[in-house]
Every structure is written in structure tokens, then in C-alpha cells.
Design brief:
By secondary structure, the chain is mainly alpha-helical. The protein is built from 8 helices and 2 strands; from the N terminus they run ββαααααααα. Strands 1-2 form a two-stranded antiparallel sheet.
Length: about 260
């Protein structure tokens, strides 16, 4: 997986969230999973002919990967954009356009928690040497990628409240849609709570004395699609549009990281 362009992945988020694009269209995100060398990119100037040509060259393998599932993708795409390491560096403030960390295999990251003393765990946990200060993002557990980075934020938030709130939130979310029924803790919550309840939140996160007697009040979760809705101006005919971080004035033919 570490070799350049050795693995390509793509997903279609508009299958689950129809608000991402107009009716009859879809959004596809395609990327190579790590290993893209930075050195060839740092010699190029963004916006130059050489830069644009190199983006096209590096994105070709992504087109080929999608064509294995959607053979006529190039004919059907209406808008696409390529994101390079330089784009990630400029727009996302990522060192050398990287995602997460490149921790050496077989070693544990600093502050990897209890697991780091048993296994070579590559990501630090959410706690820091400063009491009450938590961190989240793709440089922490559970790692890189949008789902993992989002999960680290959820873990950080949950770390600051009681297990009772965790259970209530899971019950509420499980009632929102049949798709989420698996989140209902059910009877297992009654077994879990007596063991974990007394130690959540952890001591340094309890803040004022008496928090355990008056835990953070649970706030019911209410989804507000009107505020979270995202749309794109151009999409694809029945099967693809490609999105990335780098804005361009004209449509380009693919997406890469």
C-alpha cells in the first residue's frame, strides 16, 4: 500500500445523501491511498502548463480504476477536479500535502495510551500531557480518512461526558432511521453502565467538583438537514461528478490526492 499508486479507492456519497447533488446526478470521490511522492510536485508551479499536465498524468490511474466499475465514466462526467499534494498543502495547510502521520511500522506513537505499551500502536490517543486538553483529527486515533477523523471528534466529545449520555444518544440516533437500529445499546447498556459509569468522564476532565453528582445534562440529538445540506453547481449525468479541495475556473478531468 505504501508504493505510489499501488491502491486506488473511490466512493459515492450521494448514494446515501441525495442532497449532495441535483436529482439524477452523483458525486464520486476517487483517490490513491498513500505513497504519492512529493518531490516531483515541489518542482512545479501551481497553474503552470507543466503542473496541469502532471496532474492529468497522475490522475490517469484513478480514471482507470473507476472505469472498472463504470466503463463509460469519461463520457458521462459533467464536472471533475484534481486535488494534488500542492493543493492539500495550500488549502488544507498540510505539510508536504500529507494526510495524518507517517509513523514507522513496528513502533508506537507518543501518547498512544495503554495499548501502546502492549502493541506497536501507530496513532496517539486523544489525551495530551495537559490535563483537560484533548485533540482530534487525522493525526490521532483512529487515523486518517474522513470517517476516522470524524470518529476522533466524536470520541473526544464523548470523553467529556457521562456514559449515561452516551447511551441516551445512541438510543435517540437508533430511532431516527431503520438504518441506525444497530446503534441501540439495548439490554447490554444495563450491564455496561455499572462498570463504566463511575469512571466517566475521567478525573482530569470532570472540571468543577461535584460534576459526577451533577453530570453534563443530555441534549437530545435533532438532525437539521436544512442547515447541513450541501450542494454542488455541476454534477454528472446519472453516474459521476468528482470533488476535491482545489478550486479551478474550468472543469478538469479527474480527482487525485
Amino acid at each position: 500500500m505504501q508504493d505510489s499508486q499501488n491502491l486506488c479507492s473511490f466512493f459515492i456519497p450521494s448514494i446515501l445523501d441525495k442532497s449532495l447533488c441535483p436529482e439524477g446526478k452523483h458525486v464520486i470521490h476517487v483517490y490513491s491511498s498513500g505513497g504519492e511522492p512529493y518531490e516531483p510536485w515541489e518542482k512545479l508551479k501551481p497553474g503552470s502548463e507543466e503542473y496541469e499536465a502532471y496532474k492529468e498524468e497522475r490522475a490517469e490511474v484513478l480514471w482507470q480504476a473507476v472505469e472498472r466499475c463504470i466503463p463509460d465514466i469519461r463520457d458521462r462526467v459533467e464536472f471533475s477536479i484534481i486535488g494534488s499534494p500542492l493543493a492539500h498543502e495550500a488549502f488544507l495547510r498540510r505539510d508536504r500535502g500529507t494526510y495524518g502521520m507517517a509513523w514507522a511500522a513496528g513502533t508506537s506513537a507518543p501518547h498512544a495510551g495503554l495499548l501502546g505499551g502492549v502493541l506497536p500502536f501507530p496513532f496517539p490517543n486523544l489525551k495530551t500531557p495537559v490535563d483537560g486538553l484533548l485533540r482530534c483529527g487525522d493525526s490521532c486515533f483512529p487515523g486518517i480518512g474522513t470517517p476516522s477523523a470524524a470518529a476522533s471528534g466524536v470520541i473526544a466529545a464523548n470523553t467529556m461526558t457521562t456514559v449515561d449520555n452516551h447511551i441516551e444518544m445512541l438510543k435517540e440516533v437508533s430511532d431516527l432511521d431503520p438504518l441506525y437500529k444497530f446503534l441501540d445499546p439495548g439490554f447490554a447498556a444495563n450491564i455496561y453502565k455499572p462498570f463504566v459509569g463511575p469512571i466517566t468522564p475521567s478525573k482530569e476532565l470532570r472540571g468543577q467538583q461535584g460534576m459526577r453528582a451533577n453530570p453534563t445534562k443530555h441534549v437530545p440529538y435533532v438532525a437539521n438537514r436544512a442547515e447541513s445540506e450541501v450542494r454542488i453547481d455541476t454534477a454528472v449525468e446519472s453516474s459521476t461528478a468528482v470533488q476535491s479541495e482545489e478550486p479551478v475556473s474550468e472543469p478538469e478531468p479527474a480527482l487525485s490526492e
